Amino acid sequence: MQSIEFPALAGPLVSEFATLFAWASVAKPAPEVRVGPALAPAVKAVAAAAGIEARTIGNGPELAPPAELDQSKAVVLFSGGKDSLAAALALKERGVRPVLLYVRKINGHGYGREEHSARAVAEIAGLPFRVVEARLSGKSAHIENPVKNLLLMAAAAEYAIRFGAGIVALGALEHDGENARNFGCGLSDDPGLIERGAEAIAAVVPGFRGIAALHRNDADAYARVWHSLPAAIPAVGSCMTGPRAHRSTREANQRKFGVDLLPGRCGSCYKCAFELITTAALSGEALPAPLADHCVAKLRAGLRMIRGAEALPSVADALDAFFDVSVFDHMPALANARLK
Prior knowledge:
This protein is an alpha/beta fold. It contains eleven helices and nine strands. It has a five-stranded parallel β-sheet, sandwiched between helices. α3 packs across α7 (218-228).
């Protein structure tokens, strides 16, 4: 079992969600969890994914009534990636003042440079950047705890209440619900599950509004950044390959395909492949045939991992998963690819 605490954000709300986090960290959760009935829908979703039935047996957190919350101020859970940046930019364009909140030590060692990158992106965006630290102990049975983002929303809500912000948002995407089939890594990004957590918080925090998703898919989020803050594109964290592999993989792919990759990109993970297709589409260009085929293959492998599938998805499924209902047509960028 894995436990978590936030030393700077101790309170009954975070404690409630930390209990849920510990319960969900095991492969087969217990049939009962001591959290309030407002979290019953989240408990049901996690239990169903684990193939069990479970119920809540607690009363829920007791909070002192917060001061009036201001709907023109928001806390955005921020990783420095395109999705969370796009969420912040979307709110800003609606007249909301976002503060970017980075949670340190919530992810593994492979994210060692994430905070540095997030801070750099925040500086380019000209938005306030704040950091809180999580303390994890024990081990989770999953690649990512299924309720991680629910817990992060609760922590951000504790933070927001302190300075009267009425909105908490994160960079989940609408299509993440379709890709949440793999209990090991996908469920935490499911906007439906995150919305159940937001409703549980709103039940005890008058005036609170939690926003799970502001964009349909990866392409829509990237296009928001491209059009609203293009200077941030080189700094946005996208690549999934570890820092040690960046240089050799990056150099090999640049030689192989005759391209100049953006800083920090390897060119081989599915996120790099998505970005190469997207930037070409937004620029009105077509990728060279070998690079286009390479990118499509990486998207198929990435979707297989996301969905926990045994076989590679089809080309059409892979493209639809990342570009469906997009704000631009990506097909001209892949005009030279073999799509069958």
